[in-house]
Structure formats: C-alpha cells, structure tokens
Amino acid sequence: MVNSQEILKIKDLEKSFDGVPVLNRLTLTVKRGEVLVVIGPSGCGKSTLLRCLNGLEPVNGGQIVFEGQILTSFQTSWSRVRQRIGMVFQNYELFPHFNVLENILLGPVRVQGRKKSEALEKAEFWLNRVGLWDRRESFPRQLSGGQKQRVAIVRALAMDPEIMLFDEVTASLDPEMVREVLDVILNLAKEGLTMIIVTHEMAFARAVADRIIFIDQGVIVEDSPPETFFENPATDRARRFLNIFQFDGVQRGSRGTGPKTVPVRL
Amino acid sequence: MLDSALSIFRTGRNLARLMEGLGITLQISAAAVGLSLLLGIPAGLLMAGRRPLIPKLLRLYLEIIRVMPILVLLFLFYYSLSRFLNINLSAMTVSVLVFTLWGTAEMSDLVRGAVSSLPRHQWESGRALGLNEMQVSLYVVFPQIVRRLLPGIINLTTRMIKTTPFVFFINLPDLLKVGQQIVEVSGIRNPLSSVWVYGFIFAVYFAICYPISLLSRYLELRWQS
C-alpha cells in the first residue's frame, strides 16, 4: 500500500563492517513531519543507520526508499539526495577556513546554484532564529562548541532539507551548552520538520519524540511512543538500558534507621 | 676602508662575475624548487592515498634521499655516473637533478602530512551538504591543505637556496665559488678582501631568504585570524 505520507521506507537494511553485522535486516518507516528518536547502547548501529540513509556508508543489503526513489541502487546520485537529507554530526565539522556565513552559503550557492541574495536572506533568518546573526563574520575557532553546533544545524537547514538527521549532536558539548542546541532542535520539531535524532539525552528524547526507536544489535527492539517507552518498556532489554540512566539516591535517615535508597527520577 | 672594499668590486669584471654567480644560484634554486613542487605534490597525494604498494615505494625513496648527504649525491651523479655508465651530465644539470631529487622527497612528505592531518570528517561533512567529490576537493580540502602546506613549502625553499653552495664542489661557478675565486686573487694585495666579498655574499643570501621567511610568517598570521 502506498502512503503519500511516508517519506522514508527502510526495508531489511543490512550493513556489516569486516563481516561483523551492524544492521541486521532493519525495517522502519518514517512519515512526513514525524520526529523519531533513535536510542540504544553504543555500537548498536544507530549512527550507522543514519550514515546509511545519506549514503556515507554503502549498505550490504535491503532497500531504502526516499520519496518514492530507491536510494539503494547503483544509479543513485548521492550528491542530489544529500541536498534533500540534511545531516548534523557530533563534532560539528564546520569548515575552519570559512566564516559562519561562508559555511552556510557554500551548499545553497555552490551546490544548489541559488542566488546569493536569496541564500543570504535564508541564512539571516535561520541565524537570527538560533541567536547567532551577530557572529556571522566569526570563524569556527572563535565560537564555543554550542555555537558551532548551532551553526552546523543552520548550515544543514539552509539547504531546505526534507529530512534532518542528527547524529549525537550534543555528545561533545559541555552540559551548559547542550541545552541551547537541544532547544533549537525542539523548535524545529514544533514546526513539523521530519527528523531522525540519535541521542543519549533521555529527557530530551522524551520531550521531542513522536516515536522512540530502540535499537540493539542492529535490530529494532522497540518502536513506541515516548510515554510507553519510558514508563512501560515492553522488553527486558529496553528496561535494562533505561536502568543505566537511573540512580538510586542515598537518603540519610535519622540516627538508627540507617540509609535507605530512593530512586531518583530523570 | 671603503676604498679597499670598492676597489675589489671595481676590479676587472669582479662585480659582473659575482652577479653571474648569483644568476647560477638562482637558476638552480628556481628550477629545483619548481620541479620539486611539480613532482612532489602528486607524489605526496599518492603517499596519502590508500593504494597498497605506491606509498611504500615512495616512503623508501624518501628515506634513502633523507639519509644521503647532498654532497654524496652530487659526487655520485657528477663523477661516478660518467665512469660507470659513461653518462656525462653538465654540472648545472647534475645540480638541478640532485636538488630536485631531494626537494621532491621532502615536498612529497610535506604534502602527505598536510593531506593526512585533515580530519576524515571534513570530507564527510562536505559530502553531506551535497557537494560532489570535485567540489569537496575544491572548496573544502584544497584550501585547507594549501594553508597547512605553505609554511612548510616556504621553509623548504629557503633550505634549498641555502644548500646550493654545495655545487661549489662540482666546480659550478655559483655565487660562493665566484666569491672564493675573487678572494684568492685579490687577497694578496687586499687582506680585507675576504671580509668584503663574503660579507657581500652574506648580504645577498640574507636579502633573498629573509623576505621569503617574512612572507611565511605573514601568511601564517593572516590565516590564523
């Protein structure tokens, strides 16, 4: 059944590195406007999944269909596809020899061939949104990690992508900078941008996600709304994973009763 | 004092000969640096590549050239080659050849270093923006490599210029050789001639190499900010 709402269909996706399977016949459908948060233990294949979706990793089997176009084919022009699938990396990866504005304009002007004035207008809009228009002339090394990551997000958005992929975008940031980046993504979610987000920020995952995709050993173990996943995970594997994020607080009672443990909520 | 200095440069064709010597020094330097760039850049790119055999062979070549004194190479090509293989190369050809062999080896290593020090993610983030391989090279990789490379290239250039006086030993009348000949002839009448002539040569080398050095520092500063 063809559903026009389906923007991305992944079927039996297989990927292995040196014979070690990382993605194991993974199947997933994403609807337009949906926000998927992919979580799972490290090495479970979540980053690899994102990298397969925009062709940074060649796949070994299965099918990816994006807007009716089969991407897992020899004829795929990845540079075309990537103009429509934006990606933001863990380590920002801005181009150090370009300033903020040049970083943002490179794609729209050089790749998409848009008019510079038009691209500039869009860059101004997005930079204002993330509070960095004043820093447009700065070079990446003059920015904090959080600022760099916000610029990297704007750089991807400037291409008008239909899907955005976020690969652990706050994993290298100091805690106080995580928030400013997550707020930007949260706002994009409110506007209905289709996003697939890989993150270890559980509170954020819960706030932003329409669906939580829990991956372990290259397969989707759970695919459920955030409330269900966090309150009432269906599998043992997910429950054990979530326990990693729980701490038992030690509450010192009055003399003689001894310490007792109380779970601390996220 | 000044008279004794001026008289040396005025005597006969002394000044003109020094200039001819300088011409030879500059010719060797320019030819060797130019050829080293031409050969060293592709060699360095090959060394940074993932083909299995070529980087190893180039590495071996680099190590051999590095451990070999320049003078030995000059003698090898100038004297030994003619004895063994009956190949007679002019002193000029041998000089350019040897300095190019050395320069190419060093240049390729500089290029290899600059390319492999660029994080792999720079390529990926370029590709992720929809840039094709050509555009990634042009806009992302190449400008960054040039920036990383230029100080090293300039440093190598001055090192090559400074090393050219070795051609003295295969009787090529470069600046230093000509200077030495002049000192030998005029030294009897003018005991200070060595001071003036070698002082002059010192000033000439300084005048050539110092601006190059300044250029390197200027570029480093400009690209830093």
Radius of gyration of chain A: 20 Å
Could you give a short account of the major beta sheet of chain A? 6 strands, mixed
What's the CATH architecture name of chain A?
3-Layer(aba) Sandwich
What is the rounded distance between the termini of chain A? Answer: 40 Å
Oligomer: heterodimer
How are helices and strands ordered from N to C of chain B? HHHHHHHHH
SS class of chain B: mainly alpha
Shape of chain B: elongated
The number of helical elements of chain B comes to 9
Which structural category do the helix and sheet elements of chain A fall into?
A: alpha/beta
Task: Please give the share of residues in helix of chain A.
Answer: 25-40%
What is the beta-strand fraction of chain A? 25-35%
Radius of gyration of chain B: 22 Å
Q: What is the rounded distance between the termini of chain B?
A: 49 Å
Task: Produce the secondary structure layout.
The complex is a heterodimer of chains A (266) and B (225).
Chain A (H helix, E strand, L loop, with lengths): L5 E12 L2 E12 L3 E5 L6 H8 L7 E6 L2 E2 L7 H5 L2 E4 L11 H12 L4 H14 L15 H13 L5 E5 L7 H16 L3 E5 L3 H7 L2 E6 L2 E6 L1 H6 L4 H8 L3 E5 L8 E5 L2
Parallel strand pairs in A: 3-8, 3-9, 6-7, 7-8
Antiparallel strand pairs in A: 1-2, 1-4, 4-5, 9-10, 11-12
Chain B lengths: L1 H9 L3 H35 L4 H15 L2 H16 L5 H26 L3 H9 L4 H31 L11 H12 L6 H32 L1
